[in-house]
Amino acid sequence: MANISFHGSHNGALVIEDKGKILCVIEVERFINQKNIGIAQYYPAKHIMITVEEIMKWIYSEYGINEFENCYFACSDFIGEDFNGVHQSFQTNKLINAKNYIHGLHHEAHANGVFYQSPYKDALIFSFDGGGDDGKFNVYLGNRKKGVTRIGQHFNPKKEHSHKYYDLGFPYMVFAHYLKDIRKSDLTEGNLVYPGKLMGLVSYGSVKEEWIKYFIDFYNSDPDGGAEDYDKKIKILGKKINVKFDFDNRIEGQLAYDIAATAQRAFEECFFKLAKPYFDKYPDLPVCVTGGCGLNIILNTRIVELFEKEVFVGPNPNDCGIALGLLLKHMKPEKPVDITYKGLPVLDKNILPEYLNSKPFVRKLMKKDNYYHPVEQFENNIVVKDLKKGKIIGVVRGQSEHGPRALGNRSILCNPSIPEMKDILNEKVKHREWYRPFAPVVRLEDLSKYFDWSQESRWMSFCPKVKKEWRKKLAAITHVDNTARVQTVTQKQNKWLYDLLTEFEKESGIGVLLNTSFNVNGKPILTSYKDAFHIFDNEELDSLLLEEYYIRKEPFKDGK
Questions:
Q1: Which of these, 381, 321, 366, 406, lies nearest to 550 by C-alpha position?
Q2: Which CATH number applies to 119-316: 1.10.10.10, 3.60.160.10, 3.30.420.40, 3.40.640.10?
Q3: How far, CA to CA in Å, does 328 sit from each of 195, 247, 458?
Q4: I want to staple 322 with a disulfide (CB 3.0 to 4.6 A). Which of 7, 35, 59, 179 is the partner?
């Protein structure tokens, strides 16, 4: 009988497993088109039932499964220790038909998830973020036969707060709230987007060495009252460094960038202080990093550079990976589990033939049907030539990627050698902040040709330097500090994307493409053709590649 696993709080997800095979990872945000949302955030309102009912209907229609042996779940963020509430709700309302309901812990799930996706027989695992019912900074050992065992759970280093879990994730986010370029108003997408934006600003600033100790003290203060007390603590920090932290007059310009850079460096130093004893004790073990802080690519990169460690992060270090971790803890697979492209398929897959073959439908949906010219046969050379010309192409192919990074199946691709492409994408396509960088994708064997890096970076987990001779040629993906959040790909991992890179290199002399997620600011990565058409029609996309169909806004002439 099949098994199901879900995480109910923010970045909620469900995983379906049958006969030892993982069929699909359903991220709730993609299903209901609301970024970072989770099932449990609705509890105990009716919304939880509506959302789960719709998801379960889809599972049954897609896979024919409506009953499960086990339902693994973690929802501690909204129910505390009273997880029986979830059990009763799901059982009473028959939301998930399972024989057994098994509750799991937050960081334990993170640790199992990253370890069983890794290629390692043994590994040292760090799981840390801003929450969890089993701590906020935990350390584990992973062994394929023995499983994952916790060897450290860290509390606040100050004696008076020794009962408090050590929190690096939340204070990092707090800094972002006071920077104008990140939070221009109180009408925002939510707290979870701020850390990524702070990382984008780091490169524009300089670390203020005279501030470091005060910033570390801020990380080491663990207020009892949550956000309100952090507000008080950061104002104390402000007095020490002569900076006013004020929601009504948020900090901007070089001062804001220096705060971001110093906050990042202090974050790293706090991590290194905790991690170094484990690095010293287990010098030969590779390292797995997970939890929301595993998305901090600057830290991941410095671990490799400073400690010469092999580091594995995985596609889903944030809470969207908890459901998978709960399942893998019980499966204990002997071989690495690859769920990179196990996300949702296109939810309205029947719409494409209708769109391509029905003029009334085209007029209704697109309103400008005479400008859209589908072809029935996808050819890489057509796409390559358009990319070389500077065309911006939205891609929807196969099942979606799982995790926060688009990896070729729900991507926007374009030529990285065009300097103005970064600004065009930020301003006219994605509608997001000017400082946000874009990622390159490169074949794994070409990685060291373009970047000062040798470790695989399949899920954009690191930000190595772009080699000096390529920085001007790859201007659109080279950040202000000459780094890039690189994605590597092999033919086995994604044959179509790999082959596209090969053809693009033959045509342009460059084996790199700019890859960003197919969405607009504030929305999750899309899951429908309808959304792809909408973005195509309203933003400055030049073409759509939908499975084997290629659609352009300008006519095809002689097949070109």
A1: 381
A2: 3.30.420.40
A3: 28, 43, 21
A4: 7
